């Protein structure tokens, strides 16, 4: 019980510092996927600027003048380049486009945790930190029985340890002990 409290307090402190860090994370190679929130800004063009877009399950957004644009599976730079290229010439002479990642998609923690549910992914999130977000282990939790599935519900590992790093969209399930 005291260990769970210590983990929760440490994680709370880490969470406060992570929000400052999250704005500075290198997302150069991160591929967008459904559930991520992005921002698209076109300098001087309010009708082409979107302060918050949730990427739907289709992975496509409907963008003015361009129609359906696939963003899932692409990096922020690739999306920026595609929108810039699509707007250049016919619509704008030299569009200045910026695409930012506002939030990663949620992770889900279930099983023998105090508050199962979806939680915002944060960079460098481990199983232990995810469990702390979910209120810690219950008294019946088996810390040696942790399963991780990816966002498509495919098994990544059924033998996870609390130090394993997780990714956006991961599903963590803590098993129940027999004693």
From TrEMBL:
<feature type="domain" description="Soluble ligand binding">
    <location>
        <begin position="107"/>
        <end position="148"/>
    </location>
</feature>
<feature type="signal peptide">
    <location>
        <begin position="1"/>
        <end position="22"/>
    </location>
</feature>
<dbReference type="Pfam" id="PF10531">
    <property type="entry name" value="SLBB"/>
</dbReference>
<dbReference type="InterPro" id="IPR019554">
    <property type="entry name" value="Soluble_ligand-bd"/>
</dbReference>
<keyword id="KW-0732">Signal</keyword>
<dbReference type="Pfam" id="PF02563">
    <property type="entry name" value="Poly_export"/>
</dbReference>
<dbReference type="InterPro" id="IPR049712">
    <property type="entry name" value="Poly_export"/>
</dbReference>
<dbReference type="InterPro" id="IPR003715">
    <property type="entry name" value="Poly_export_N"/>
</dbReference>
<protein>
    <submittedName>
        <fullName>Polysaccharide export protein</fullName>
    </submittedName>
</protein>
<feature type="domain" description="Polysaccharide export protein N-terminal">
    <location>
        <begin position="27"/>
        <end position="101"/>
    </location>
</feature>
């Amino acid at each position: 019980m005291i260990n769970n409290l210590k983990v929760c307090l440490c994680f709370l402190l880490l969470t406060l510092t992570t929000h400052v860090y999250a704005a500075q994370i290198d997302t150069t190679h991160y591929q967008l996927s459904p559930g991520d929130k992005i921002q698209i800004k076109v300098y001087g063009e309010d009708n082409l600027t979107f302060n918050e877009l949730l990427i739907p399950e289709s992975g496509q957004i409907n963008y003015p003048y361009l129609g359906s644009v696939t963003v899932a599976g692409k990096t922020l730079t690739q999306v920026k380049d595609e929108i810039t290229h699509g707007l250049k010439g016919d619509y704008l002479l030299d569009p200045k486009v910026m695409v930012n990642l506002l939030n990663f998609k949620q992770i889900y923690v279930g099983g023998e945790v105090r508050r199962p549910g979806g939680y915002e992914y944060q960079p460098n999130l481990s199983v232990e930190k995810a469990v702390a977000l979910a209120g810690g282990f219950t008294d019946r939790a088996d810390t040696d029985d942790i399963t991780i599935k990816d966002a498509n519900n495919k098994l990544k590992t059924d033998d996870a340890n609390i130090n394993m790093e997780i990714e956006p969209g991961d599903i963590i399930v803590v098993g129940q002990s027999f004693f």
